[in-house]
Amino acid sequence: MDLRKVWKLLRGRRAVSVVVSNVILTGAVIAVGFVVLSWTQYRSSAYNEQYGEAMNADIARLKERLAFEYVFYNYNSSGGYLSVYLMNCGTVDNVTIQTVYVTAITGVLIQVNSNVTLRQFNGNEIADLDRGEEGYFVLSLPNLISSSYSVRIVTGRGSTFDHMFFA
Amino acid sequence: MTICFSLRKRVRKLIANSKGFSSVIGTTFMVLVMLFLSTSVFLWTLSQNTMYNEAVRARSQEEADRHDENVVALSGNYSVSEEEVTVKVVLKNAGSVAVQIINLWVLDTYELNRRYTNKSLNNLNLNPGDVLNLVETVTILGANASHNFVSWFVTARGNTIPLEKEQGVIIAQLAQGIGSITMEFKTFRHHIVDKNNNLGPAQYGFTIPGNEYTVFGINLTNLDESKRNINLTGYSCVWLIVPGTSASASWSIVKVVDGRLVDFDFQVLEYGNPTLIFFGKTNPPASLQWKTAAVNLLLYGKIGSDDYGQNIPFISVYVTG
Question: Is the dihedral of CA A138, A142, A148, A152 positive or negative?
Fold first, then answer.
């Protein structure tokens, strides 16, 4: 094809009819419209997902509840041990223990333990506590002077539960 | 009429003219889509908030129920037998909600034997106002009757119910007044024994037959202040004597196994543990018949490693003919 003819076609406005221009314009508007719609849907889905996750996490945390059945500190020749007996009396399963803090009544932090082995009362190791389930863990502690202490449990969902004990 | 005609003409013209119609449909469609999307997001957010509020409400209700739990553990008492600790307690639900008790914890507070144990209690539900006499036995290594114990119950809602021990002062005073033994007057019974040494049914009361071989059954509780066991020997007996006369008779301490008299060796009264002791068999002599007799409990043996001897005049009986 002669280049001069192409150039003439592009430069000449008489050949572009109203119908063609409308088709091109409508197509462009529809394309942009679908892009905007898809983006809106994507954004709203992402928002829904994030909000849903945050809300479900909040609800699960709200349903978590650990009861301290007994906290026992014993010191003998092999060292000090703190046994903490718990029961999941909340309404949500899979309560894990993330961190355990032991503090003196004065607020002085005595120990932080993030590696807690949870066991059933019969000694079997378990990963979490389901509804109504009981379990315990044992921490090695230094020799504590006779006083009141506090044990704080932080669960995997971020709830905290405190209990006082006397050494 | 003219206005109406003019309007109708304009509408007909608007419908007939298709210019710009597609733009209206497109805009309407777009607005509807946007409305649908925003409404969906709004309603979904609302439903999530509703779920959260529902969870908050449920949590508040649980907290309220937990605070409304009010179970009291009264008249607590401990008895120990070979490292087995028996806890006797009266549980009373004084709250407004039903309570499920799931665990009993017992702690030996003796300094050299600070051990503890727990026992699961199945199907122990208390409705508001319920009163339950509970006897549970747990094993604590090294437990001894001279040790002190602390126990508490755990409910399914996570509350703990401390056991309130029985009034020790009153028991001590009682024990001080009559020695180391208490007896239950209400459960004094006698049995008629046949020639094969089989006991008949227990007959409660203070009138005994004068022409039958009888065995007395007396509930005794050792309340020694030092919490030592009492070991009764075969010299212990019940002695009936009629005032103003020399008429008397005695019923030696015996053992009963499966409703039958067997040879007596010894009888241990553990601290705090009510024990049914039998005396007999004896046929009251004619000199006792149709008379009221004083009943004396003559106990002899060892208390701990010390000698023990005690005479307790505790009831009177009428002997028929």
Answer: negative
Segments making up each domain of chain B, as ranges: 71-166, 171-319
| pLDDT in the model for residue A100 | 94
What is the tens place of the pLDDT at every residue in B90-101? 999 988 899 999
Chain A residues with CB-CB distance to B118 below 8 A: 69-70, 85, 121
Residue pairs between chains A and B whose CB atoms are closer than 8 Å = 62
A88 with A131, same domain: the answer is yes
- ∠ Cα B215 B217 B223 (to 5°): 145
pLDDT at A5 over 80: no
User: Do A70 and A49 fall into the same domain?
Assistant: no
Chain B residue closest in CA terms to A73: B114
Is residue B166 classed as helix, strand or coil in its secondary structure?
coil
B180's CB contacts (< 8 A; 6+ apart) are B222, B223, B224, B225, B230, B303, B308, B310
- Chain B residue at shortest CA distance from A58: B52
Contact residues on chain A for B49, CB-CB shorter than 8 A: 55
Query: Which residue on chain B is closest to A63 by alpha carbon?
Result: B59
The model's pLDDT over B168-206, given as tens digits with 9 standing for 90+, comes to 434 444 544 567 788 888 789 999 999 888 999 999 889
The answer as to CATH 2.60.40 being correct for domain B171-319 is yes
Q: What is the ipTM of this complex?
A: 0.73
CB contacts, 8 Å: A87 with chain B: 102-103, 154, 158
Residues A51 and A127 in one domain: no
Claim to verify: residue A8 and residue A79 sit in the same structural domain: no
Express each pLDDT in B102-151 by its tens digit: 999 998 888 788 888 989 888 789 999 999 999 999 999 888 877 888 89
CA B279 to CA A93: how far, in whole Å? 60
The hierarchical CATH code for the domain B71-166 is: 2.60.40.10
Residue scoring higher pLDDT (B44 or B179): B44
CB contact under 8 A, A63 and B157: no
Report CB contact under 8 Å: B41, A44.
yes
In this complex, the residue of B30, B51, B158 whose CB is nearest that of residue A33 is: B30
Q: Is the whole model's pTM more than 0.90, yes or no?
A: no
Helix, strand, or coil (residue B208): strand
Which residue range(s) make up the domain with A30? Answer: 3-62
